Amino acid sequence: MRSWFTILAGCLVGLAAGPAVAGMCQTPFMHDGGRVQLSGSGMMTLGADLSFSNVKKQGDNACQARVQGTATYGLAGLPGGKSKVDYWMKVSNGQASFERDDGNGQRVPVQGKFDLRMLGLFSYASPITQAGQTFPAQQFQLHVDKKAVDAKPVVIRTGERTVGERQRISTAAGEQSCWPVQYTRVSEPTQASFNGLVLPVPGMTSAVTDWYCPDVSMVMKQDSVQSGVTSTVEVTLVQ
Asked: What is the pLDDT of residues 28-71, one digit of tens each?
């Protein structure tokens, strides 16, 4: 599961709006020397400190960059840890593909792709304009890196999203007027191997709120509740 969480953390910090508004390629940190940090707490804890270089943009929703830094992760009491991040990332139409150095100076693909719309952070197919606006349910499969993990794809389903009344919240980019977008997220149970020991990865049903802040074109905070326990993933720095 080490690679899964590395990629998950790397994509979470994208925290941008949907493809029709501004995706990963339009976020404030997507430039040479860009940097973003996030921290998390609760049942699902994610943290990252990432920098971006060799950035090339081919359009509003097509770009590539080298992503380097560290990510930390933990889930429901399973073994967590800290992982080095060093990927070449390519984004096209909401899909991200990754390559890494094979140790001999060659780039090799990370098997499978991570859909940036995962977890609701890149799922808004039209601009958010008013409370009561809805977005359709979706389903994704996360294909983990087979070199690092022996596991089946993780299936994640999200329910219909509903926009709440706009509110002002404190963020790392200052006080922002943001839309709360609420929905249910279900991840199906699977299993993963840790040094030869196969452990179950529990399924989870979460009530999720994305706080989308249009002035910075990012979801600056995501709150989720699983079995009565609140988890928060929040952008703490963006440059």
From this structure: 888 999 998 888 787 767 778 889 999 999 877 788 999 888 87
Question: Residue 204 has what pLDDT?
Answer: 80
Angle at 160 between CA 214 and CA 120, to 5 degrees: 45
What SS3 string covers the chain?
CHHHHHHHHHHHCCCECCCCCCCHHHCCCCCCCEEEEEEEECCEEEEEEEEEEEEEEEECCEEEEEEEEEEEEEECCCCCEEEEEEEEEEEECCEEEEEEECCCCCEEECCCCEECCHHHCCCCCCCCCCCCCEECCEEEEECCCCCCCCCCCEEEEECCEEECCCEEEEECCEEEEEEEEEEEEEECCEEEEECCEEEEECCEEEEEEEEEECCCCEEEEEEEEECCEEEEEEEEEEC
**Does 194 score more than 80 pLDDT?**
no
Query: pLDDT for 200-229, tens place per residue?
Result: 777 788 899 989 888 877 788 889 898 888
